[in-house]
Write a sequence for this structure.
């Protein structure tokens, strides 16, 4: 499990491609790899991956074909920056919301609005996932736990403070890029339960 509180930004040092598998070699800030063991879980841009090898400040992760298909990890190249979070431990503070690291879908950064001390990002999501997106609800974008602002059509926005921009890759985000989305599990459970009970259907005509 993860908390959605990004612990830093790492750099893709190398991508080793094989049929149906990419090995991501990721360079971490030195202090952030202390105590890492083979088999540990680390979220890379919100995707839960397993450490397969360590070489100093380099950690190796295998991303299988299904992961590459469902996330943006297949687009990563040498030199790219990524958000990371090591798995939560019992007793850790939950500053964001509980995440599994299982990406549901991807979204496109459609618009960036910059004002003094704030940045608003608008994302476009596949229509089928918008039923889980509500104003003031939780969502994880590239592994960062964020609060949804406005929702309209198949778009929603988030408002970012300078600290979030500094501590994550959102500070260098560009319009048109794709991001990983993990829907809040509690919201998904409630919406799906109500749908099974028939509460998602239009009211009958009188």
């Amino acid at each position: 499990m993860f908390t959605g509180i990004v612990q830093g930004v790492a750099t893709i040092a190398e991508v080793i491609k094989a049929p149906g598998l990419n090995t991501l070699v990721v360079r971490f800030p030195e202090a952030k790899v202390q105590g890492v063991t083979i088999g540990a879980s680390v979220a890379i841009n919100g995707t839960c991956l397993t450490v397969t090898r360590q070489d100093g400040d380099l950690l190796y992760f295998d991303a299988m074909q299904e992961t590459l298909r469902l996330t943006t990890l297949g687009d990563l190249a040498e030199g790219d920056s990524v958000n990371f979070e090591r798995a939560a431990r019992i007793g850790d503070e939950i500053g964001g919301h509980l995440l599994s690291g299982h990406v549901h879908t991807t979204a496109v950064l459609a618009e960036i609005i910059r004002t003094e001390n704030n940045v608003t990002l608008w994302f476009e999501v596949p229509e089928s996932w918008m039923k889980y997106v509500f104003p003031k609800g939780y969502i994880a974008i590239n592994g960062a736990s964020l609060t949804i602002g406005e929702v309209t059509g198949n778009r929603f926005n988030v408002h970012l403070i300078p600290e979030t921009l500094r501590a994550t890759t959102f500070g260098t985000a560009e319009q048109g890029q794709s991001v990983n989305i993990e829907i809040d599990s509690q919201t998904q459970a409630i919406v799906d339960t109500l749908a099974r009970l028939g509460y998602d259907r239009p009211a009958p005509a009188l």
